[in-house]
Amino acid sequence: MTEQKNILSYPIEYLKGVGPLRADWLKKELNIFTFHDLLHLFPFRHVDKSTISFIKEIKPTTEFIQVAGKLNEIQVLGERRSKRLIAYLRDSTGVVELVWFQGINWVQKFLQEGNNYLVFGRTTMFNNKPQIVHPEIEIYLPKITQEKASFEPIYPSTEKLKAKGLNGKQIAKLTQALFTQINENDLPENIPSTILQQLNLIGRYDAYKNIHFPQNIQVYEQALYRLKFEEFFIAQVRLNLIKLARHKVSKGVKFEKVGNYFNDFYNHHLPFELTNAQKNVIKQIRQDTAKGHQMNRLLQGDVGSGKTIVALLCMLLAADNGYQSCIMAPTETLAQQHFNSISSLIDKEKIQLSLLTGSTKAKERKEILANLKNGTTHFIVGTHALIEDAVQFKNLGFVVVDEQHKFGVAQRAALWKKALTPPHILVMTATPIPRTLAMTAYGDLDYSVMNELPKGRKEITTVHRYDAQRINVMEFIRTELSKGRQAYIIYPLIEESEKLSYEDLKRGYDDVKSYFPEPTYYISMLHGKMPTEQKEVNMKRFVEGKTQIMVSTTVIEVGVNVPNATVMVIESAEKFGLSQLHQLRGRVGRGNEKSFCILLTGSKVSTEAKERIQIMCQTNDGFVIAEKDLILRGPGDVEGTRQSGALNFKLASIVNDKPLLENAKDAAEKLILEDPEINLANNLPLKKYLLQQKGGNNWSKIS
Ligand code: ADP
Ligand code: MG
Fold first, then answer.
1. Between vectors from CA 24 to CA 22 and to CA 28, what angle results, nearest 5°?
2. In terms of Cα–Cα distance, which of 514, 511, 535, 515 is closest to 524?
3. Which structural domain range is residue 329 located in?
4. pLDDT higher for 449 or 196?
């Protein structure tokens, strides 16, 4: 069992040029503990010092350049903060200005007019003339310069490390030393050769070598491409293995037949024609639940895409197979709403439906629980109250979790432990996630998308208005109300101070009331801190059309369905994130009338906020918005995503390397489908690699 220790796991102090002291700094500042860690500190760029350009070649688009020439006219200009040293470098083709703001004394001592210098740096244009600020500069000795000509890696360093003499260049020296100590055997191939050939990828060792020390830009790009692919590919293989293992170990109840409950509803009571997206998802779920393994499916549908009816049809399918279903919603209002809409759709003679929330009265609750336990109840809708131990089912077979991100994993797990065989789970989220993010963050789940809205929906018109135009906005609301429509006015929730937020809301409410006085108009108000009962009453009045305006914080956000509401005004819209704005806007445009969303802001709006508002005005498509959100904020911050190691790619980016991710996903899926145990000779290097990695044991256990 004495396997030879991989040199890459050696502590960094074993590297030539790194003593205990430097090792300490590298650990503290850059998290470099081992050879492996240093190998994975990638240069953030390379500078091309293989050629010396002519000064006349500097163009506005030039980034970095190396030039050589005679230095003259060294002079110090300005005072104090604007003090700078300027010099001119001239070759046979032109002249470039060199500028220093710092280290002026040193430069003055070191540079001499009339000498020849080799200069490297980032070029800028100043008054149409080329300029290099803080260039790298050294005496130009043509012969020596030619010998050390290269494509130089620049590594990230930190201020502290630089102060200790470990700047980007010195780190390059360490990496160079590392490569004298490792060879091809230390970085064995982990991608099957067929895939390497198919995608024209270079080998693993070469890739590492060339991402650090390429001879030219082409080989660097090949190296980068290969390593990015590797990151995606390995992650996708893992996700596929997890999914496979889950399907294998998790026995699920079988929904073998489609019976009367489903057919009767589908053929006689469906209130509208299903969209193709809805039909597809139902088909996927039917296939999945018939297989005998537990379904764990994430359903992503844009706001208003009609997820509720999909859930209901699946619950009817469960009932046809003798199983109970439940829907868990994040708030009482939503649970109530699901209860109402399902009540109005189903035949209550045949299907027993109940509602359980925190405010269900004790006596009623007792009865509900009894009926659930003895199997009389088919469907139960509820809030977190469903998770409690007292809630027991006779045979729970299907669980719907609405608006997924409000629940923790543990809470959901508690639900599916309520059955001997775990029930099928359908998690519905209305926060669209870009495809690439879903592929990496949810790749181990079964996954459906509904990116189609029901027919007849009118586009919501979204506009940006400034506070100064408030009167116009109010008049616009008045026009809509006069047609019998309703409106929402939303205030941001200031999380640090519930109290302040309430005062804001109250002021807003009074303000709205002065525009829309009783008895012509009635207004509802909702606030997170309001007693639940009060909330329910106020919401109900709005749902029933007894009030025309709903003034609310974002508690209204998720899922609320009032098709008669056609105006959504969002106050201080600059304070909201994209997905939240989209969610809020999704409260209107749910009926057949034309709807409007008005984003109100003060006169000063940050560039980013402006960008968000612009995107909102341009598109209604939640998936497009999610893509933009991903670009604006990066993968870690996009709402509705779970923490996932799969997102920690060092080189690859799910924003910029989409085609590569698609390739990696296809290749991984194909491989696991053909060789689920990874036993084919061609795939063994991959298996070996996976087993050696952290968590490798885990994988071998389940495979
Ligand atoms: P969400 O996906 O946001 O939860 P809902 O399930 O609340 O959406 O549906 C939004 C509205 O669209 C509801 O009023 C629902 O009755 C209606 N609806 C759902 N599917 C269709 C369809 N295929 N055709 C027309 N209206 C539909
Ligand atoms: Mg919904």
1. 120
2. 535
3. 305-429
4. 196
3-state DSSP of 364-395: HHHHHHHHHHHCCCCEEEECHHHHCCCCCCCC
Report whether residue 561 contacts ligand 1, using a CB cutoff of 6 Å. yes
**Per-residue pLDDT band at 27 (split at 50, 70, 90):** very high
Classify residue 265 by its DSSP letter.
Answer: I
The number of the ligand nearest the C-alpha atom of 590 reads 1
Q: Which of 122-131, 233-242, 547-556 has the highest mean pLDDT?
A: 233-242
Check if 308 has its Cβ closer than 6 Å to any atom of ligand 1: yes
- Whether 171 and 320 map to the same domain: the answer is no
Report which DSSP code applies to 569: E
In a shared domain, residues 176 and 125: no
Chain centroid to CA 277: how far?
A: 23
Question: Is 208 contained in some domain?
Answer: no
* Together in a domain, 37 and 165: yes
Do both 476 and 587 map to the same domain? yes
User: Which residues neighbour 567 within 8 Å (Cβ) at sequence distance 6 or greater?
Assistant: 476, 477, 480, 485, 486, 487, 488, 588, 595, 596, 597, 598
Share the mean pLDDT of the chain.
Answer: 87
Question: Within a 10 A sphere around the Cβ of 172, how many other Cβ atoms?
Answer: 17
Query: What's the CA-to-centroid distance between 544 and ligand 2, angstroms?
Result: 19
Q: Tens digits of per-residue pLDDT, 442-459?
A: 777 788 989 888 887 788
Reported residue count of the chain is 703
CB 423 within 8 A of CB 624: no
Same domain, 614 and 473: yes
The DSSP secondary-structure symbol of 454 reads P
The answer on pLDDT for 641 being more than 50 is no
Q: Which ligand 1 atom lies nearest to the CA of residue 308?
A: 6
**Contact by Cβ (8 Å): 172, 62:** no
Adjacent-strand bridge partners of 399:
326, 425
H or E segment and range at residue 448? strand 446-450
The answer to the question of residue 264 being in a domain is no
pLDDT at 403 over 80: no
Condensed to tens digits (0 to 9), the pLDDT of residues 60-87 reads 888 888 899 999 888 888 887 788 889 9
Token digits of residue 17: 């040029």
Q: Is residue 480 part of a domain?
A: yes
Lowest-pLDDT choice from 13-17, 185-189, 353-357, 498-502: 498-502
Q: How far is the CA of 307 from the centre of ligand 2 (A)?
A: 6
| Six token digits for residue 468 | 């100064």
Backbone angles phi, psi at 138, to 5 degrees: -150, 160
For residue 592 and ligand 1, the question of a CB distance below 6 A is answered with no
pLDDT over 60 (residue 405):
no
Which pLDDT score, from 0 to 100, does residue 501 have?
64
| Pair 614, 480 in one domain | yes
CATH of the domain at 536: 3.40.50.300
The whole-angstrom separation of Cα 529 and Cα 549 is 20
* Consecutive H or E run containing 200: none
The amino acid occupying position 126 is F
**pLDDT above 70 covers what percent of the chain?**
91
Rounded to 10 degrees, what is the CA torsion of 619, 623, 624, 628? 120
Residue type, position 620, single letter: N
**For residue 494, with 0-12 CB atoms within 10 Å meaning exposed, 13-18 middle and 19 or more buried, which class applies?**
middle
Q: In the predicted model, is pLDDT for residue 1 greater than 80? A: no
Residues 382 and 497 in one domain: no
Q: Is the CB of 548 under 6 A from ligand 1?
A: no
- Specify if 310 maps to a domain: yes
Q: Which CATH number belongs to the domain containing residue 110 in this structure?
A: 2.40.50.140
Q: Are residues 138 and 172 in the same domain?
A: no
- Does pLDDT of 148 surpass 80? no
Number of domains in the chain: 4
